[in-house]
What we know:
The protein is of the alpha/beta class. It has helices spanning 12-23, 50-58, 88-91, 102-115, 192-200, 203-214, 262-277, 286-313, 319-334, 336-348; strands spanning 5-10, 28-34, 45-49, 68-70, 72-77, 83-87, 97-101, 120-121, 130-133, 142-158, 164-169, 174-180, 183-190, 220-236, 241-242, 245-247, 253-254.
Amino acid sequence: MRPDVAIVGAGPAGSVLALLLRAHGRSVTLVGPGGQAEAPGVARPIALSDASRIILERAQAWRALQVTPIETVHVSQQRGFGTTRLSAADARVPALGYVIDYRALTQTLARCVESAGIPVVTEYDRATPLVVHAEGSGQYSTEKPYGQSAVVALVDAEPRAGAIAYERFTAEGPLALLPLAGRFGIVWAVRPERALGLLAMPEPEFLDALQEAFGRRAGRFASVAGRSSVPLALRVRARRAGEREAYVGNSAQTLHPVAGQGLNLGLRDAWELAQAVAGAPDPGTAEILGRYAARRRLDAFATIRVTDLLAELFTGTSSMARAARGAAMCALDACAPARQFLARRMIYGPSALP
């Protein structure tokens, strides 16, 4: 029997969309293997926002996830003044975010999909009323390489990681430390040739390089595992809806990891599409899909622009650029309403606007 919706791509955005649609009583099929393939032993820490927590709760998947909450985000820059701290209290939320390894997330969602009785197949009927692309690739109208690669790994530190995440802006790019079950997941943006060197370094040399770039605010780095790298680019599809087709997650946009917004924006795509088609007799009409695209326009545009701006502004090496960044961080640290607005905007999208 032909389903109402075929979702191509069984990663987090596609799986969550399938669970939301099934909760609304829609017949849905997932197409393709669950999640993005990861080599054994490769780390890929992901930060879920509080908005993503709410979406995953509505999808009946949150309780099955083992996550580490982020209570505070500490922001600083290498060889420059200025720091700021964002806290859960600033945003009036239980936690600013929740960290989980990507593989654990996809595996848990795959089990939830199986429990919900959603079929996962290798092909779909082209005449399905609505086909949703969530496979994480496609034809983009904008593609902007950043000239950086993200080095990702898991690091043990002394003392153990708690509930503080760190974002440090270095001369080469942003360096994030995300607490994950007592360890830190690192996402370190550097030049591609530097990334190759960091991957090839013996463990002691890598830890020394990381310590030099980050400092000792998070303690002493003791060991590292699961090193890998991925090239960074901004990719945006001009239209997220076509004739009986819709696009969510990385099929609609791929972002720089500087603000940790990519997956969270993709889950908000899934939520809005599920709401748009939930009770529609025909989920693939131009009216329904046009409504979805319109409801995603502001959130997607603002998140893409802010992320791109941060990626550009926080990689300058001149003394003037460092001074401007330092002044901005000091001003933000001194203004509680600004911190609250920024935190809620990054968590919830436009719904955080006053």
